Amino acid sequence: MEKIIIKGGQPLRGKVAVEGSKNAVLPLQAAAILAVQGTVTLNNVPPVTDVKVMDRLLGFLNLKTAYGEKQRQLVLNASFPLSSEAPYDYVNQMRASLLVMGPLLARTGHVRIALPGGCSIGARPIDLHLAGLEKLGAEIKQDAGFIEASCEHLVGTRIPLDFPSVGATENIMMAATMAAGITTIENASCEPEIIELGNLLNKMGAHVHGAGSKVIRIQGVYYLHGAEYTVIPDRIEAGTWMLASAVTNGDVIVQGTVPEHNASLIAKLEEMGVTIIKQADGLRVLGTSVLIPANVKTMPYPGFPTDLQPQMTVLQLLANGTSTMEEHVFEKRFIHLEELRRMNAKFQISGSVAILDGPTRFSGAEVTASDLRAGASLVLAGLAADGITQIRNPQCLDRGYYHFYQKLRALGAKIDRLNIEDKFKITPDQQPRQNKGQEKE
Ligand code: EPZ
Description:
Layout: E1 2-7, E2 13-17, H1 22-31, E3 35-43, H2 49-60, E4 64-68, E5 73-77, E6 85-86, H3 88-93, H4 101-108, E7 110-114, H5 127-135, E8 139-143, E9 146-150, E10 158-160, H6 166-176, E11 182-186, H7 192-203, E12 207-209, E13 215-219, E14 224-230, H8 235-247, E15 251-255, H9 263-271, E16 275-279, E17 282-286, E18 295-298, H10 309-318, E19 322-327, H11 335-341, E20 347-350, E21 353-357, E22 366-368, H12 372-384, E23 388-392, H13 395-398, H14 404-410, E24 414-419
Parallel strand pairs: 2-15, 3-14, 6-7, 10-11, 18-19, 22-23
Antiparallel strand pairs: 1-23, 1-24, 3-5, 4-5, 7-9, 8-9, 11-13, 12-13, 15-17, 16-17, 19-21, 20-21
Helix pairs in contact: 1-2, 1-7, 4-6, 5-6, 6-7, 8-10, 8-12, 10-12, 11-12
Ligand EPZ is lined by residues 23, 26, 95-96, 122-129, 163, 165-168, 306-307, 329-330, 372-373, 400.
């Protein structure tokens, strides 16, 4: 069984470079479906599992793609006849597969995609995606675990969103680029990744205005063509490195970040006594031995990002007193705290609020990563803990972090990733014996 093994207590020192943004690249990959001629070339594309899953899905839809890992360049060509069915295997592996719905509907007039299953951080319904596409004129049917959407042609309209959903905003933007007339998305997501999508779509010949603000206006066009685009750095990876320096009382320079993309995190770190110095080669993050408690609320951008919530709770648990974390984006995103409890964390959860009782002396333990960001929080706790921490299911980290443990080792962490036979694994001949007449459990 593969595990990450950490011997904690080592302050991180040195420089770490941030990869391109996974959550910006995924919608840009899907947007390539819209290019009826020419190629879409994306630069600064991180070699993470989610990007590779999306690439395999696009290949299944008959796009031709090529990725140069060294150059971090992905080239996509959608000028061939496309399939419009996304099988369960892809959607089940990655919810962001849903992002092919809008562009496939606009390009082919049809899409059949498996409904995504459950998720460890919440129900994550797709009602806002479907309602938006329906308002543009799509007929939506659901059967046998699949969603089917079809339309003669899409017509622009006003689409108010009940919640500023990132994915729903992205799907509707892409569908609207080829809808007749004007589409107005109200209460749109304002994340930097939305701006990236608007920029690429406009380079492909679309007319998108206001991406990054609450109201996005799109004038439909007849077709889109290829373009080249360089993706922004990953603000969640950057924030994870900043928190890794803070939890180990380290001194790390996080290179290649866009500071304003992490403004809410920087404000909270400074409130807790961490020093952030903006310098030419990046953000220098200096930890402190006495952390001040702080209350945090996750909110849509520019609020504190939910994708840094698990990692932030580790720093709050180290602080000298009680902090609170309010999770306002996903309804079930505290699963990592139960793992941290095994490392000595003390907390209570009441609804969407976690009351975190610091200071915590984390003690090493064997824990399991349930998802990408929960896994990152367990690594951070292991770095701060006394003794050895073993983390199961490290594969989930590969979804959004490239060379995660290698980069931590380069910063001085005592960390490795090993295949360890579980010495307590019960082999068939060790199965508990059944007494005569005792019913099998
Ligand atoms: C994106 O997911 C990100 N993923 C997530 O990052 C991130 O946590 C999330 O936005 C919030 O910032 C990608 O960009 C690939 P949402 P998305 O639609 O688009 C509810 C990571 O770790 N909702 O903004 O799926 C939903 O249940 C991942 O990199 C509906 O109710 O998020 C949630 O409570 C995890 N109906 C809230 O909105 C809908 O139709 C926010 O979801 C859609 C969403």
